[in-house]
User: What shape does this take?
Amino acid sequence: MIGSGPNITAILIFVAFVAASLLITWWAAKRTHSTGEFYTAGSKITGVQNGFALAGDFMSAASFLGVTGLIFIGGSDALLFVVGVVVSWAFILFAFADRMRNLGRYTFADIVAYRLQPERLRMLAAAGTLTVAIPYLIAQMVGAGSLIETLFGLPYFVAVLIVGGLMTVYVAFGGMLATTWVQVIKAVLLLAGVTLLFLFAMAQFGFDFDALFAKAAEVHPRGQVILRPGGLYDDPISVLSIALAFVCGTAGLPHVLMRFFTVPDAKQARRSIGYAVVFIGYFQALIVVVGFAAIALLVGQTEYVDESGRIAGAANMVSVYLARVVGGEIFFGLIAAVAFATILAVVAGILLSASAAVAHDLYAKVIRRGEISDRAEVNVSRMATVVLGVATIGLSLWFRNINVGVLATIALAVAASVNFPAIFLALFWKNLTTRGAVAGGLTGLVVVVVLIVLSPTVWVNAFGNEMAIFPYSYPTLFSVAAAFIVTIVVSLSDRSDRAVTDRAGYDAQVVRSELGER
Amino acid sequence: MADEAEILRNPDFQELLRQRSRWRWGLSGGLVGIYLAYCLVGVYFPDVFARSFLGSSIPWGIALAYLIIALAIFLSILYIRIVGRLLEVPFDDRGSRQ
Assistant: This one.
């Protein structure tokens, strides 16, 4: 724990955030009765609101705490992530926004199932959603547990219970409406917090960027090396894999895709992603400065960084330590509370996408074949939320020592290798068939999991073997390629009756995807 | 209501599809291409990115990262404007511009 005794500011701000979010949940619960209201807030969210909510969904603790930690360790190589994030959002806007909004209703499965055999595609999409959502949820909750333990001195299991319990309440009672507003508030808090952190840090250097970077390179144990590429990754395969994980992975995250359907039409969908690009770009631009400021101001302070450059607690604590150094106890409490609120909002969004996959795609559409009343489906969604929430809490307590980085890699890699190829080819390639999409999706899933198990992070660090069988940390270059190749080859060689229907449906889909519902 | 095949044959709709796909793939291909190029220059020519940006202690690698972020934001706003204008003229149910 940092400081003497619990930080009162942090506790006050956090309690205020929780109180506000519970009030919103209560307000939203009274307005959430139908499936449309539960999954997509009745598609009545405006472009600006959804822009904030998208940014809130995406700016996780990984981007706030993880990237600054990465800059601290690896210097400018972390820019691969920072730039990749912004590029991926602009890519989503250019390539997907309109068509996705025009074709879908509740989940991205609506798009891949539009002209293909619906049950099989929904099962694939649900598998893709859950293998993204569950590792992602566990990663965030384990991270939150350790963060709160360090910041507030609360035991790990209490922290996990608080985060898990609150996220379940938001989603189960307030559905998408509550989740959206929790995201909006969190996004505003996070953007404001990072802006202040940036200003306070820059004030230490008289707002002279030149001086900041010069000092960072001077004091870092690795010196000038942190200002040149190669600090973390120096082979093209790893770098391209990371780039692909971002470009394709973000466009395959189910909780992000679900947000497309909370706005009334394609125009608002475009606008909301435009806002998201601006907010996320602004955030990423500041976070780079914050990362280098952390190097310049924390190195040499033995309370936070030891002689060899190791950070007290964990690498992802540098932002909060920096807040304490530049802004004192009150500001430290504010940033700590913002970090906590960030995690809470992100897990709520992911949990909602997971319960929609179970209740809508699997139960209502596959098991009941659509023969289910609206009210019954909402009840199933709420039950699925509670079951998934409790399961995640249990898993997070069980896997407390799991490597959070591996889980986050799995989530993004599965999104890139299972969901992205299916969505991309369903939208733009006439010859895609049911058999091809399913074969390609399963290939992507298997390749991701196998390569991550054989990679250094699991095979060497977790299993204690000497040499990794697969030498790279990120599998995406291989898994995305495998998924695309298998999907295309199987689709082209598919001579089934279903394939004829699949291809014939493309024309109608194009008209609908460009002009919307007529 | 006209069926989809008829709308697809409509020259107005075909023109819309052509323009939309030009902007879609032009912008996303351009931006993703620039990003991949940025990644690869960093791998193969790290010295270039380590060089000082206009004599400051900020290296080219970081300066370019900021330029790409600014470009992504600029292109996004441009895209929303342009595509909004392409679609401003509503289409009737035969796929003709009204």
